[in-house]
Every structure is written in structure tokens, then in C-alpha cells.
Amino acid sequence: MSNYLWGQPVAFLLLIPWFGLIYLTMLRKRTSRASLKMSHIGAFKKWLGRGRIPLYKLNQALLMFSLLLLIVALARPQRADAKVKRTLEGLDIVIVLDISDSMLIEDMKPINRLESAKETLINFIKQRQSDRIGVVIFAGEAFTLVPPTLDYQLILDRVEKITTAASARIKDGTALGVAMASGAARLKDSQAKSRVMIFMTDGENNSGTIDPETGLEVAKGYGIKIYTIGIGRSGPTQIPQITRDLFGNKVKRYQPFESTVNDELLTQMADVTGGKYFRASKEDSLAGIFKEINSLETTKIEDNKYTRYEEFFPYFALLGLILFLIYRGLQLSLLKVGP
Asked: Of 81, 141, 223, 276, which residue is 20 to 30 A from 320 by alpha carbon distance?
């Protein structure tokens, strides 16, 4: 950002005597008397505007203008370029998302639990500035969708394409211990001062080769803070099932299902690592939860403001000096008065 200003504006007080000099010059012209009286000047009219008088007036103007330029130079006109150097200290965040079949339950907008989670994640990622973000998806086993990176567009593209376990060719189920260990593995070599895992699931552990307690010990050992989110309402519900009829057309049917979120385990995961547990039972809950996480885990930004000044007074001083020298040169040559 550039600003034009004056380094020594007090120099403009010199305009007072400058205006006084102009006034005295004009007053002297008005009060000066002719040294030779003529009874009739008709014969001299054809000489009006000739001779050295116009040059003399021009020379006086050069003097006044050169003095004005010198005054401006003394006021030090300058341009100040203010710049802010920002130092960003980012976080390393891994989002661990449950994509088991139960995430298709249609109790959250815009369509189901999975689409609601994806929409909220996309908005969350767009709000981050200098944080490396990775995504791990899991069901009966875990899979790294995107390792921690600053390429937000890549992350957004991958999150947009997330589907259920069957489409991702992942074994169905809910392996919370395996998911925690996989997320921790992506953060173990992090050099960031803050390592954060956002763990989202709608079920309880029923699968995997690593139990939740072991996965939690791994995450705690690496100094990872876990924010856990339980998605959906617990209790009797229905899971949509897509099948095909005799003609190959897709048909959606619903099958009864008992939805259970392990609030106790998710609370323990958060408490042990210094995070926080959230419950998202309706569509607007997730947006509020991520807004709170966004405020709790902010990127440290330091602003160092500095100003660079560019001086213009040498240009005015040089031009004023040149005009003054021209004035003196004419005064000592063409306009010289003397015997």
C-alpha cells in the first residue's frame, strides 16, 4: 500500500515570505516612475512588446518558480510503501471419516449422514489457511485417502468423491482402533507444534485387528489431540439398500437397523488426548461443531509491518537549482544593466 506524504511539512512556512516577495515585486512595478517624460507616445506604440522587457518578466517568473521548487524540496515529498510480512505457523490435521454402510442412513441433510459429513468437511477445509490436512477413511479396515498436504484442491476433489465401503472396496464394519492407528501413523512424523485428529463415526467398534484402547495409546504417544464426533441418532432406524430388478433398474429398499454410537469410548478418546467430544444428531450440528473446532485450533499468524520510504526531494531541488542558474545567467548576460 503506497501513500504520498511530506517528510518536513514545516518547510511550507517559507511560502509566507515567498508570497511576500511576489507581492513586493508587483508593488514595485506599479509604483515605479518613468525616467524620461514624453508629451506623446504614439510614435513608440509599434515597439510595444519588443526589446528585453518580456524576457525580463520571464526571468522574474523563473526566479519565483525556482524558489517555489526549492521550498517543495525542503518539505521532502516522499512515497511510503507499507508492507506486512505474515508469518504463518500451521497445524497438521488428519480427518478420519467412517464410511461404513450405516453412514447411508437418511436422518441428516442434504441426503444422509455421509453426504452431510462431506459437505461440512469441504467447508472446513476451505477455511484453513496454512495447515497440512490429510484424510483417512475407514469401515472394517482403514485407508489413507490423502496424506497430509497443503494442496487443498486435491483434498477437496478427493473428499467430494468419497463413497461407502463397498464402492471404496473396503471391508464393511467399524474398526475404530485401526482407524485411530492409521490416522496417528499419518501424524507421527509431523514437525508441526500442534497435531490434530478429527475422528468421525456413527457406530461402535465391531471389527479390526487393533482394539480401540491400543489405537488410543498410539495416538496419545505421538502427542495427537483428538476431536471426536458421534454422527446420527441412536436407536431403531433403517438403512437404504440399492438392488436391481429383473430389468436391471436400481431399486432402493430399506432394512431395519439399530444405530448405536459409543459415546463413552468417543468421550474417552477426546479426554485422554486433550480434545473434545461432540454429538451431531441433526444436519446443522456438524456445521456448528466444525465452527467450534475451527476456533479452537487456529493457525498462529504474526504480522510484521515495515515501511519503505522513497524520497522525491532531489528532483525538485535539482530542477529548482537549474531554473535559478538560468535566471542568474540571463541576469548576467542578456539582461545585464550597467555602464
From this structure: 81
For 111, the 3-state DSSP assignment is coil
Residue 59: predicted pLDDT: 84
| pTM, full prediction | 0.64
Please tell me whether the peptide bond between 110 and the residue prior to it is cis, using omega within 30 degrees of 0. yes
Question: Residue 202 — φ and ψ, nearest 5°?
Answer: -120, 15
| Confidence at 31, pLDDT banded by 50, 70, 90 | low
Q: Which of 263, 262, 272, 260 is nearest to 216 (CA)?
A: 272
pLDDT in tens, 118-176: 999 999 999 888 889 999 999 999 999 999 999 999 999 999 999 988 777 788 899 99
CA distances to 65, 95, 168 from 143, rounded to whole Å, are 79, 12, 9
Query: How many CA atoms are closer than 13 Å to the CA of 185, on its beta-carbon side?
Result: 13
Q: Hey, what CATH topology would domain 91-298 get? A: Rossmann fold (3.40.50)
C-alpha cell at 89: 505457523
Please report, for the chain, the start and end positions of each structural domain, with discontinuous segments joined by +.
Answer: 2-27+50-82+306-332, 91-298
- d(C-alpha 95, C-alpha 149), whole Å: 12
For 170-226, write each residue's pLDDT tens digit: 888 999 999 999 999 999 988 888 899 999 999 899 999 999 999 999 999 999 999
What is the rounded CA–CA span in Å between residue 290 and residue 63? Answer: 72
**3-state DSSP assignment of residue 58:** helix
Q: Is the pLDDT of residue 90 over 90?
A: no
Instruction: Find all residues with CB under 8 Å of 255, minimum gap 6, and list them.
Output: 238, 239, 241
- What are the residues facing 85 on neighbouring strands? 304
